Every structure is written in structure tokens, then in C-alpha cells.
Input
Amino acid sequence: MPRETFILIPGRTSRQGTSLNVSKLAGEYIDEISTVFLCPEDMRRLGLIDGDRVRLRSDQGIAEVKCEAAKPGELPPGVLFLPYGDASSRLMSGDTHGTGMPTSKGIDVELEKL
Amino acid sequence: MTAELKTELKVVSNATCTFCGCVCDDMELTVEGHRITKAKNACVLGKAWFLNHHIENRPVATIRGQAVPLDEAVEEAARILVHARYPVVYGLSDTTCEAQRVAVAIADRIGGCIDTTTSVCHGPSGMAFQGVGEVTCSLGEVKNRADLVIFWGSNPAESHPRHWSRYSTMPKGLFVPNGRKDRTVVIVDVRRSKSAPAADLFIQVRPRSDFESLWILRALVKGLTLREADCEVTGVPLAVWQDLAQRMKSCRFGVFFFGMGLSMTRGKHLNVEAALALARDLNAHTRFYIKPMRGHGNVTGADNVVSWQTGYPFGVNLSRGFPRFNPGEYTTADTLARGEADAALIVASDPMANFSQPAREHLARIPYIALDPKETPTVRHATVAFTTATYGINTPGTVYRMDDVPIPLRPAFDSPYPSDQEVLTRIERRIRQQLSER
Output
């Protein structure tokens, strides 16, 4: 499968927020922050099914996560959602452009099925 | 006797939840020994916070992973910080104001940088506040007066679940006696989040078009004529923006809550400046206010404490004996990613999980001290780690709600671990002694 370019929006989820109180080192939290969501149209077009592993690559780094279809209408085509965590941090740049804040949302990434 | 005490049942009323910036202070906690078994009034996040914080089976302190007595760890922490040339003190958003104050004192003693998680949260908003100002109000005013409530780049259904029911959209207020029926709720976001179905109006903007969208609204509020082509970049038709601008101008009391969808996206402080200026402009027509949706339980307290101690809210350098503020230079994401910091004191935060890879790699290379009630990636890699009591559950103190209202904590049960304030106070005392011996 060729690499496709997407805009990645990392963000909070309820499941991430509840599971981090149990442990940030294992279990539900790790599962939540290692799952990227695509719109169903993109999933179909790329031949992906829930649970498939994909590689995300930004200018900064690489993260390998599993993918799931978002609810219909939640994400527009070309946009990915990934709960904040280790994988999203790997894709962030260290450069903050003089603000102290790395660009943490709206990151250009390439997606490749593994 | 001990067994009896451990199973003693009590109820703590009006306890405060410190999981998110809502800082709800109407919790009713049922406590059995060293465990909270019920958290009445708590949201899903609050329940997870209260029910999963019990006494951890971890040493009170470790040095390079080996359990040590508290005094030995304090000595080593002070030694690391005193001998550093460019130390940083970072975190602070999940601890009390009393502990935050001691952390600032430590940064002052060692001539380091003091920075909080604000810098990777609403730090750009802090910069924008300085540039434009903030037309501000309390959440109590929102509850009693607001008839138009806009959330932009924020998903309160998942990040601040009780914000709507307690403060902003559902409650009946003095001038909105019918609660939700008297209000119009608008969500603007790049994705149809779980908050969207509860809004009267959902506007889905294209990613990275917040700046343009806000300036289109500013233009419309000013009465300028725009063309459909001017709005193409936002992915939203002109008529939708015209409708929203009209609603904003004609409401009696409007409030604009913005999340990290503005501050973390390309444009950052410029996005927030546009939002702040829009709220300011609207006061030519009606009453309009703007507030950031703050994440951690006492991140607002961190801004307040660092501001009243140094004059600036975050990203402050004290190496010359007086405070200097410069986001991008003294902020921790930068001092680590550029490889400048040579030691760190991390309090109640997890940069090893949340920072960029270059910053994390540098943090792993330098000696650092971590204080946290739970084991985290940051604690695991720390040179010196302290297990501390959980603020609000085990320790009293003060926190600030997201609208800068200070709220006291009512702890549920004692912890065998020291508080952040106690550990920091001991480290600060040893730093003073070690500096005087040099």
C-alpha cells in the first residue's frame, strides 16, 4: 500500500482520562493511546479493517499503532485522530517556534499499512 | 486496632475533585480505610480519579531505582540541583499552591528556570493574554447570565464532563431561569466530537483554519462585507459565519470557551489573540467574555503562583537573580529539546510521556528528580524519585479553578507518604544548607 498523507489531530478522550488513573504503564491506557482513528471512507479506500497495524511518519518521527474506524461523520476524510500519549509525542516536533509549545495538533503525517 | 481503623467507614462532604480544571467542590466521598469506595456527584473522570487513588505499594524514595530513606533522597536531590549549571523546575499543575510556592523558591535558590505544564497547554494563550488582554468573568457569572455559550477547539463532553451541567449550559441561573432552554450552545471544531450532538449549532472547520475563521468573524462583527470566496479556506459557507456573528452580537451575555484546539495548532498564540480580540470587539454590541478551558486540576493555580512570585506565569528564568520571561527560550520543551538543561526537578507531571522525542531523549540523559503519587514513565527514568501523597485525596491545600477562583481541598484519608510540599520544603532547606557550605 502506498503512503498517504493525512493531518493528525491528537486529543483527549474519556477512556484515556479514566485509564491513566489506573496505570500509565500498561493495560487500557496503553491500548487507548496506541489506536489511531480514521473516517470509515478512508478505512475502506485503504483496505483497512479495525485492528490493522499502521505506521505513522512525521518529519520528526515514527509511531506504529493499530487503527480503528471513527464513527460516521466524526472525522472528515484526510484527518486522523489519536489520543494523546507516547505515540502522538513521537510525531511532535521539538521546535516550538518561540512559543514553548510544540505544534501538537494538525501534524502532517504519512500513513502506511503494515 | 490497625485493622479496625483500616475498615472504618466515613463520608467526606464537599470534597474537591482535582482531576480537571472544573475543580468541582461538591463531592461526597465514602471512605473505607485507605480507599474511596464511592464518589457521589463525580463525573466519569472524577470517579476514576477518586476510586483509583489508594495507597501505592512503593518505596517512599528511590535513587537510580534503589529504595532509600527519605533523608538520603533529599540529600541527593539537593546535591543534583545545587551542582547543576542550568537546572529546570517543571510541572506543578497537579499539586497544591502551597507546594508550587516552594518549587518557585527552589528555582530561585538554584538560579534555574521555573516552568509549568501551562507552557505545553495554554502557554500560547498566556502570551496572547499579555498581547490583547482577557475580557474575563467567573463561571458563576456564566451560570447566572450566559445565553450564548461557544466552545471552540474544546471537547468538554470528554475532557470536562461536568462543565456543562455545573457551570455553562444546563444550570438554571438568575437571568437564565430555564437553564438549557434559555441558552444557545455552539461548538466549533475540526471533528464532530462527542460534545457536538449536545450543541444547538455545530460548525466543522477545516484543520488549521482557526485563525482565518476567527478573523472572518471579527470582520463580520465589525460590519465588513465578505465574499463567499473569503470563507473557502475554512470549509464553512459565509452564511454560517454570518449567522454566528449575528448571534454573537445580539445575545445578552455571551461567553467563548476555547481549548487546546486553538493553542496547540499552527498559529498558536495568534489564534488565541484573534479569539480574545473577537470577544473584546463584541463588547461594542453586548456583553461578551472569553475563558480558556484549563486541563489539569491546579494548572490555573500554577499560573497564579508563578505570576505572583515572579511576575510571569511560566517559562521564567531566575539565573541572574531576577526573573526573565521568554517562551521558546526558558520553556522546558525547548531547554530539553535543545539539550541545554543539565538537571531537572519534575513535580507532578509526566514529560517522559508528553514531551517531544528530542526533549524526552535529553531528559533521559540528565539527572533529574521526580515527585509523583504514581509510577509513570517519568518516575521510572528518574535519578531520584519520591512517592508523594495525592493532593486533594490525602493532603489539604488550595487549588484554583479554571476561572481563577481559589478552592480549598478536603482530604479523604491520610497517606503514609509525604506531601509534595513537605518533600520540596526539605529539598529547599538542604539546598540552602549546601549552598552555604560551598
